[in-house]
Amino acid sequence: MTVAGRANESDGSAGPQRFAGLATSARNLTSALAGFLGFPRSQNDNRPRHREPGPAVELDCLRDVLAPSVLAAAEQRSDEVGVGADQVLIQWGVIGEDAYLDRLCADSGLEIEALAGISRADCLLPDDQVHVIARHGILPIRGQRGLILVSAPRGYTVRRTLRRIAQSPSLRERLRLTSSRHLAEFLEVQSGDALAHVAADSLAARFPDLSAAPMRVSRGRLMSAARYFARLAAPVALLTLAPLTVIDMCSVILAIWFLLFTSLRLAGCFSPRKRRPRPPRLHDSQLPIYTVIAALYREAASVAPLMRYIDELDYPREKLDIKLVIELDDLGTRAAIARLGLMPHVQVIVAPDAGPRTKPKALNCALTFARGTFITVFDAEDRPEPGQLRAALDVFRTHDPDVVCAQASLCIDNTADGWLPRMFTAEYAGQFDVFLQGFSNFEMPLPLGGSSNHFRTSVLREVGGWDPYNVTEDADLGFRLARFRYRCVMFPSTTFEEAPARFGAWLRQRSRWMKGWMQTWSVHMRSPRQLWRDAGAGGFFLPSTSSSAETS
Which residues, other chains included, contact 44 with Cβ-Cβ below 8 Å and sequence gap of 6+? Predict the structure, then answer.
């Protein structure tokens, strides 16, 4: 059975133990109502989104508060972008979300739910469905009279809700409104243990053979270890009886391996880059929600420049879902984010203090809250080209559905800082602009870079996200996607970043890469035959050849 088959089997066996019937109904109803209370259910495509025609009834509660010109401008922008006019005003900073909800509820008769008195036991969705709440902004809870939906408005939620209430006034008793901030705080506080488990141990629990997490020793594991050492007995005996013959054989095998590796790299160098016709530019109203994640640790000085570069992306702010993940003890970075002021499109997530404190665990925390159909990762010092998000969407539009990741090129731009950055510049140019381009043309698995990789969000969740126990989580994820029969491709966009200029920083980074590549090779070579069946010859040989290149 392939890895993909095991994934479907694993997902199919999961389910809530308590309130099974009611929880299933709540999950189905939550997904169904997401279509008219907010954006349609997230699909991994770029088809034009359904637009809710005017008039913008969500502005009626503000007619006596804001100037008519401001309301008219918000309604016009709503038509251009494809979101509710209330969301436009909130993103502009004209009115706060809490203030708007107060006015809306006073005008419509709806109730506000601050979630202060709601416990985790009142939520009808199981722990493994917390991401559904965060993505759709709908929390199903048990009320005295049955199911109650608590909605954090986004997209066309308010406009559609007001129209449904006008048609069915009884819906008013089943629906309450809350702010995105209150919903996020509820999930972080009441579902903290579940979020920590998903971030740190979900991959190991679902696919233990694909995780670098420590394995529990059991009787079955002991028997497997005994069989493994028994298989080693023959080579050890041969080495003892005929050492020179064994050494010669190993030398021949390593020489052939090196020649194969060199041939593959040379083939990648001379492989012409495939050119695809550029599709027409999508109108802002057709763009999907795009999640941008940055995991920050002791990056107070980099926060402001990073946000400036993200704001310069050629993408409507109303459709950006930005997640900044920080650690619990990183007060400096938290203060630097607070100094930037109000940013309605930014959510700051504090990674739970459980499991390993690594970048992939922080990324998994953000993945739970991600609302975007597509998702990308940037590092603190990254400077992506403004058109990168649209260029990545063009990749997904022009390739088959099995292409689930688009990797941009990384380029070092601090070459003037010394000899080490200049060496990094040459290395990155060869890696991202030559070798990986060739691997992409050959449709081989890609050892992804640490940032500027763009994913289909649903597939990223399907394969388990990032491995918190692997320090080169990016390369591991590239090979894991190949084992699920998905492909990664390079695309013509560049992200500029800085390379270490001091020997100590370079040595720590290079040591981490070497450790991570050894982890990745060890994980995927646990069962070589299974790896061959899952990923083919390219997926079998590439981890070793790529690790040789990265650690050299």
Answer: 373, 374, 396, 401, 404, 456, 457, 458, 459
Contact between 510 and 482 under an 8 Å Cβ cutoff? The reply is: no
For residues 62 and 245, give the distance between their C-alpha atoms in angstroms, rounded to a whole number: 86
**Nearest-angstrom CA–CA distance, 407 and 490:** 5
Distance, in Å, from the CA atom of 163 to the CA atom of 99, rounded to the nearest integer, reads 21
Q: What H or E segment, with its residue span, contains residue 187?
A: helix 180-190
Query: 328, 298 in Cβ contact below 8 A?
Result: no
Q: How far apart are the first and last CA of the chain?
A: 36
Q: What is the pTM of this model?
A: 0.84
Cis, peptide link before residue 500, omega less than 30° from 0: no
Domain ranges (residues) in the chain: 18-190, 219-270, 284-550
- The CA-atom distances, in angstroms, between 171 and each of 29, 109, 110, 111, 162 are 14, 11, 10, 12, 10
User: What CATH class is the domain 284-550?
Assistant: alpha beta
What lies within 8 Å, CB to CB, of 126 at 6+ separation is 14, 15, 16, 23
DSSP classification of residue 144: T
Place of tokens 């979300």: 97
Cβ-contact 182, 134 below 8 angstroms: no
Task: In whole angstroms, give the CA distance from residue 408 to residue 222.
Answer: 44
> Can you tell me which residue has the tokens 């320090």?
471
pLDDT in tens, 35-70: 545 444 444 344 445 577 778 999 999 999 999 999
**Ranges of the chain with pLDDT below 70:** 1-50, 216-232, 234, 239, 264-265, 267-269, 271, 537-552
